[in-house]
Specification:
190 residues, alpha+beta, Immunoglobulin-like, 2 domains, six-stranded mixed β-sheet, three-stranded mixed β-sheet, 2 helices, 11 strands, binds dinuclear copper ion
Length: 190
């Protein structure tokens, strides 16, 4: 049954050998493609953070530009979009308490002044890393009103476990009333 030595292949045996060879080529091609994908994505993504949209100089965040203190908090942009701007720094978020409307897409724009921090809103998919030099941007919609916790979830130093803020989700009408005329809204006591 089994051919020994270098005999010629006959009939069904030749068909089987050809099929095996074809499949071997297909399998090698698939494995090569997967390895190439892994090499490409690890090199490509390792060289930039996941939210690699915009860069910013972390040294003068407080002095000029989008992230000056008077521009932080939630506002309604000229085109009607709800935008939250915040900064993370050891060991607090600024502002520490955010106000957002329920049921409306909210765009977050955030960055860090010092270390890599994590931003997550409890029980939502609002979750991003805040990296000095980069602006993290994402959009989330909060379905229910109520208060959520917003802890830092990236170890950033000895005060990491004390770094957290709050998010108050309020009714959209109530929010629109607060954010009239381009006002920056937050729930930080003044
Ligand atoms: Cu900021 Cu951990």
């Amino acid at each position: 049954m089994t051919p020994t030595g270098a005999g010629t292949l006959h009939g069904s045996e030749a068909v089987a050998v050809a099929a095996e060879r074809r499949w071997a080529i297909v399998v090698i091609a698939i494995i090569s493609l997967l390895v190439a994908t892994m090499v490409f994505t690890s090199i490509h993504w390792a060289s930039m953070p996941p939210s690699r949209v915009e860069t910013i100089d972390p040294r003068n965040l407080h002095i000029a530009g989008e992230f000056v203190e008077s521009n932080l908090g939630t506002m309604v942009d000229a085109d009607g979009k709800v935008v939250v701007r915040l900064i993370a720094q050891r060991y607090a978020f600024e502002p520490q308490c955010l106000v957002v409307p329920a049921g409306v897409p909210v765009t977050f724009r955030a960055t860090s002044t010092d270390a890599v921090h994590g931003f997550v809103v409890d029980r939502t998919n609002a979750n991003v890393m805040l990296i000095p030099g980069f602006i993290a941007t994402f959009t989330a919609t909060f379905d229910k009103s109520g208060e959520r916790l917003m802890p830092c979830h990236e170890y950033c130093g000895t005060g990491h476990q004390a770094m957290w803020g709050r998010v108050q989700v309020i009714a959209a009408d109530e929010f629109r009333a607060k954010a009239k005329d381009g006002a920056r809204v937050s729930c930080v006591p003044r």
